[in-house]
């Protein structure tokens, strides 16, 4: 059986639920997390951070720290400034974007709680931590800037006084005539949604170890990062260490979710200290430190307007976004909300779309990519507002979606935002989800509970999402003014014994690339899965790469592996033809062996060919003695996974507690390489989306202190807080790559948040509740119910007084 | 700013002199250690930095994440919440001491692998140690009991569903073996990676 779209035979490996090669070290504790590493003469670094949201630094005195036994060095920002450039932002989203200086160690001013002001280097970690208490810093407090709207007022205090404004940029995307659409509409629904700040919380805190070779000026930076290749380029630019002298290694990395898609000052500080001291140094952050010092996610106010006809046809959408940049622009801070700009129309057809995003500086930790990066916010806005429109029109929210979504036969479809979705089948995914969910029964139960005035209400939430991932075609990134490209590199080495090394530019930190790339390679080369070794995450081993984020690894990096393997086969075919004295065209390649058509005994396995090439005694004229091949892939389009998530919640109107009763997700991520890994990605993604809906928020007080500043205060859900999910898939192969695969890393997170909040609202709308801010904590739900019932009874009283008695 | 002139001093760091060092005798994963430690040294730092037993990671500084969970004389503890001196005269088992003497994995290690109960794997040592503690008390837990027992262990990758599945699978295997504590018993060969996952 071959696939109709790709003409590709399903492989022996692709599609199998292989258990992971990665696991053996991880379940036995034989890991190399960055903090596990050590080096002869290793020194430990501790960082002193600002306790204030905004202040001028009057004085930093490190002298008494130096007097402490075991302390080797102590430095203020001014001490380290020489030779250390501003930390990079790679995304100048508009020509006039305000780009402030961002020193790795603050020099004149601190702009958020956690902004680093001094470092201490000592022989052991306890001494380094102790010595922070010896550093004296005098601060002159400045006013915090926290409210996104107030920050834009003319007389607002400024985060960066030299810039004269807190407005970072305003970025438009306008398509069609929204004013005309609005004028023609029977119904206009307008809502404000708050995307609270989230803290990514990868379970491994960050660590950096820099090891110098003073005699040669070489440095190795071990860093808990998702992006060793980008870090290498950026550290070369920031520290002035020549790129060829700098090796960056991402050892085992314990999760990222975007938080380690960053060029952090601590890497630059570690390299600078290693250079100054001529000795290896290591910094490991504490969790509480990471809450202040790693970038946060989300942090937006969304004003959304949908214009529609009375019978529920969408005419247009308007979005005005205020995006909290935090204090500085990090690697893709300004671009993160814009990754969502193209996704607000979702899966729906409409005539006009008007989007504006304004980035605003505040005295909070910088924001940047967190799982989904811009697209969860966009999907939340459209899916939440679609439910509000359905309520306004008195339509079932599913029916409203059906009337507007792109139909299967309309693909490829160019949306109002200008993207061309290659494939999808929204009806198929929705039908499958409905069948698994028992939609009609739940609706009946919901009605019954409402009629019986049951204190525990039932609500059903729908999210029919799509997203753009597989970041990204370089030419599109260029047109969006991003500084780099979106290609990925793969190399395949055929070893003399017929075993295979795959070198990938992706940098996995939990995604299972070693297993999945082995499956892809085994199919393409016809070698056993066990014979493939995958290497990554070290710029000396895998010299080229764009790393792992944006659900890009499979659709770009995995396809690059596939293409490199095909190049190996093409070379091997030449050699096999030569050895078999046959023409290349007469050779068949199947199950790892070349055979001459019609005489199957004339046969060479790819392993035999590999050895013959190694020996090089008898190669085709002019052929180099290698089967190795490299492929750099720049994609033509994004990847557009989609799906339908259905959530049923029980809301206790007396306690405000929300309990997820059932959750069904049917995702369409095209063809699947490893269904077990895909299911795991969906589980984890949905968990993080539920967490935004119900549990998590980075809370700041009026002085700009991070109140949810430790893991005891920030509610990362534990096992009892999350439901069992029912997962299933439909499979509409992507047409944009030869394996028909789509990205899956972020889909669950993007889909789930609106499904949950829609369910909560669906339960409470009959009580008069109009909105609840995320996270929908028991207190917020309880208050919303109380206010709505109070308003309802006041209205009833008023009506009673006026009306005839 | 400057560098401390003491950094050229070849003598070992004088940290121990500052607070009186304590002598401890601890057995870690079957190996006896005699050491002098600062009284404030956390057990997890003793394991990682002094003994090089880095299989037990650190995920937080507030005792919330459970990544550092180890077994202390048969009790599951968060080793960031215990001082090394409190382990004096006691026996510590970490994830690195779970496999049998022939290297055979503990049923929980196998089940985590087979059920895809880990992604980045950072929480895994603590999860396995906490689950092992549960199964000692309750060899046949319900899914809810597993979830409740693991409440002190956070995982950011898996959403817990496969972790619960793995713990239930391991519980079933342990019951079949009739041994609540299979340590030292040949628990079957570790399943090679790349096997088809059980449906
Ligand atoms: S490191 Fe011990 S509980 Fe988090
Ligand atoms: S597997 Fe990554 S935190 Fe649990």
What attributes characterize this protein structure?
heterodimer, A: 805 residues, alpha+beta, Aldehyde Oxidoreductase, domain 4, 7-stranded mixed beta sheet, disordered N terminus, B: alpha+beta, Ubiquitin-like (UB roll), DNA polymerase, domain 1, 6 helices, 29% helix, binds FE2/S2 (inorganic) cluster
Q: What are the SSEs and their pairings?
A:
The complex is a heterodimer of chains A (805) and B (199).
Chain A: H1 23-28, E1 43-49, E2 55-61, H2 63-67, E3 71-76, H3 77-81, E4 109-110, E5 116-122, H4 125-131, E6 136-141, E7 167-175, H5 178-184, E8 187-198, E9 207-213, E10 218-223, H6 228-239, E11 246-249, H7 265-277, E12 281-284, H8 287-293, E13 297-308, E14 314-326, E15 352-361, H9 375-393, H10 397-404, E16 413-414, E17 420-421, H11 426-437, H12 439-451, E18 456-466, H13 474-479, E19 488-494, E20 500-504, H14 513-525, E21 532-535, H15 553-580, E22 587-590, E23 593-596, E24 599-605, H16 606-615, E25 629-633, E26 642-652, E27 658-668, H17 675-694, E28 726-729, H18 747-764, H19 778-802
Helix pairs in contact in A: 9-10, 9-18, 14-15, 15-16, 17-18
Chain B: E1 2-3, H1 15-18, E2 22-28, E3 31-37, H2 43-50, E4 69-72, E5 75-78, E6 90-93, H3 107-114, H4 124-137, H5 143-149, H6 161-177
Parallel strand pairs in B: 2-6
Antiparallel strand pairs in B: 2-3, 4-5, 4-6
The structure holds FE2/S2 (inorganic) cluster (FES) (2 copies).
One FE2/S2 (inorganic) cluster is lined by residues 58-60, 63-68, 78, 80 of chain B.
Region (Disordered) (chain A): 1-22
Keywords (chain A): Molybdenum, Oxidoreductase
GO molecular function (chain A): iron ion binding; oxidoreductase activity
Give a structural overview.
- The complex is a heterodimer of chains A (805) and B (199).
- Chain A has 805 residues and is of the alpha+beta class.
- Chain A has three domains: 2-21 and 487-633, Aldehyde Oxidoreductase, domain 4; 38-144 and 211-283, Alpha-Beta Complex (Aldehyde Oxidoreductase, domain 3); 372-385 and 397-471 and 637-790, Aldehyde Oxidoreductase, domain 4 (2-Layer Sandwich).
- Chain A is globular.
- Chain B has two domains: 24-97, Ubiquitin-like (UB roll) (Roll); 107-178, DNA polymerase, domain 1 (Orthogonal Bundle).
- Chain B has a five-stranded mixed sheet, with helices on both faces.
- Classes of the chains: A alpha+beta (805), B alpha+beta (199).
- Chains A and B meet through α1, β3, α4 and α17 of A and β1, α1, α2, α3 and α4 of B.
- The structure holds FE2/S2 (inorganic) cluster (2 copies).
- Chain B: Residues 175-199 are annotated as: Disordered.
- Chain B: It comes from Streptacidiphilus jiangxiensis.
- Chain B: It holds the Pfam family Fer2.
